[in-house]
Specification:
Layout (H helix, E strand, L loop, with lengths): L9 H13 L3 H8 L3 H8 L7 H11 L3 H17 L4 H5 L4 H4 L3
Helix pairs in contact: 1-3, 2-3, 4-5
Length: 102
Amino acid sequence: MTPKYRPTHPGEFIKADILQELGMTQTQLAKTLGVSRHAISQLVNHKRGITLDMALRLGQFTQTSPEMWLNLQLAVDLWEVRHSSKAKQIRQIQPFLSVVSP
């Protein structure tokens, strides 16, 4: 079942739960994580998604699992595809059991 509303982008969690909650700047977080400030800015502004590398870095910093960060991103990515121009075409794909005859 597809959620009606777009899931929260992981960048919102970075903004609210890390930057605002800890009183950090994007530059400070970038330095702490060993990434560019541009990478953090793109995440916070929903211009970039969480990569495996970033999930590991955020997980280490926040003492959470990288899987948590990846699942947040996965929810957004799936919602986007399910609401894209390709969604109708994807729904028309027949399951392999109905295509392959015994």
